[in-house]
């Protein structure tokens, strides 16, 4: 049987990436262009379609399906972006129709966290597992859940907003309208924001100024023994662990995979996260579960989008 190939498209607030991927995960071609979000969606799609034609020509194979991963919220059934915070001006934009019309191939859309969960399941740390929970911890906290080997979409395709698991009753406000959400405390954005408030002279010196502090600076300060930075980091990991434990209690997975920029902290994150999360999970559900880093790294966008397409082949 001849291998089938899909076109994978990853749409983010700063870049548009595309690649041709075989069923076994081999990438035949890939490329990227800036999103230039200020120019609006029509302009971005024009550049995206040109990029897609390029990568298809480079690969030199027929394309069976197109998979698109994009920042949410979106409507995967209608193929429309809703109000993605990373893509201002893309409200109710008919992304799937535009891409299909331009390239003449059927396209499927999912949000970037669901796409990443599918990518890790097919090509990464979730290979061979039937029940997975995926968290991404970067500027926000997102998630995706694989049950019985398939992504669980929910009634409108928006299930598994794991960043908005509420871990503190009457807790801190979250832009989603909830309170005490994991994201509004443990995302890269909020870790940095909290660290700026209590920053030691050492952390400020590491970043250059208080306003320039990022999560990477916080991690570097923790490694250097900074007490204030460690307090911010430890609290963030505890909140994230409460979210992971809640997700394990809800879904009974075999494995929890954690990806996203904040995971570059490595064992400084994973050792306490795994210990604290499993320590507060119900005993009957904690048996045999592990909490592991994602494997796809900076390939997750394109490989996730490829997995979206392949899940429909
Ligand atoms: Zn929230």
Structural description of this entry:
The chain is α/β, with parallel strands linked by helices and 313 residues long. The protein folds into 2 domains: 5-118 and 299-310, ATPase, nucleotide binding domain (Nucleotidyltransferase, domain 5); 128-294, ATPase, nucleotide binding domain (Nucleotidyltransferase, domain 5, 2-Layer Sandwich). 40% of the residues lie in helices and 20% in strands. The protein has 11 helices and 12 strands. It has helices at 40-59, 95-103, 112-123, 183-186, 188-198, 201-207, 215-223, 227-251, 267-279, 283-286, 300-310, and strands spanning 5-11, 15-22, 27-34, 65-70, 74-75, 80-81, 107-111, 132-137, 141-147, 150-151, 255-259, 290-293. It is globular and about 55 Å long. The protein starts with a strand and ends with a helix. The mean pLDDT is 96. It binds zinc ion (ZN).
Structural class by SSE content: alpha/beta
**Which residues form runs of ≥5 with pLDDT under 50?**
none
Major sheet strand order? 3-2-1-4-7
Count of domains: 2
Query: What is the number of E strands?
Result: 12
Count of discrete alpha- or pi-helical segments spanning 4 or more residues: 11
Structure characteristics:
313 residues; alpha/beta; Nucleotidyltransferase, domain 5; 2 domains; five-stranded mixed sheet; 12 strands; 40% helix; binds zinc ion
What is the structure about, briefly put?
By secondary structure, the protein is of the alpha/beta class.
């Amino acid at each position: 049987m001849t291998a089938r190939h899909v076109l994978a498209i990853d749409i983010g607030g700063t870049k548009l990436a595309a690649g041709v991927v075989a069923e076994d995960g081999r990438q035949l071609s890939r490329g990227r262009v800036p999103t230039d979000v200020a120019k609006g969606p029509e302009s971005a799609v024009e550049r995206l379609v040109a990029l897609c034609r390029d990568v298809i020509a480079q690969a030199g194979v027929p394309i069976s399906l197109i998979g698109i991963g994009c920042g949410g919220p979106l409507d995967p059934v209608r193929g429309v972006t809703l109000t993605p915070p990373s893509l201002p001006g893309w409200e109710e934009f008919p992304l799937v129709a535009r891409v299909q019309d331009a390239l003449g191939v059927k396209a499927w859309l999912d949000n970037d966290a669901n796409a990443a969960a599918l990518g890790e399941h097919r090509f990464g740390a979730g290979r061979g597992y039937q029940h997975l929970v995926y968290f991404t911890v970067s500027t926000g906290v997102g998630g995706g859940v694989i049950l019985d080997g398939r992504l669980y979409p929910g009634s409108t395709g928006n299930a598994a907003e794991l960043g908005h698991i509420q871990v503190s009753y009457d807790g801190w406000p979250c832009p989603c309208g909830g309170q005490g959400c994991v994201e509004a405390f443990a995302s890269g954005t909020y870790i940095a924001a909290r660290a700026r408030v209590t920053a030691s002279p050492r952390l400020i010196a590491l970043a250059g100024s208080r306003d320039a502090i990022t999560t990477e600076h916080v991690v570097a300060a923790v490694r250097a023994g900074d007490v204030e930075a460690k307090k911010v980091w430890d609290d963030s990991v505890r909140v994230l662990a409460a979210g992971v434990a809640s997700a394990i209690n809800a879904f009974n997975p075999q494995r929890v995979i954690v990806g996203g920029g904040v995971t570059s902290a490595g064992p400084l994150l994973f050792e306490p996260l795994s210990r604290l999360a499993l320590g507060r999970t119900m005993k009957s559900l904690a048996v045999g579960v592990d909490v592991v880093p994602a494997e796809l790294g900076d390939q997750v966008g394109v490989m996730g989008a490829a997995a979206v397409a392949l899940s429909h082949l």
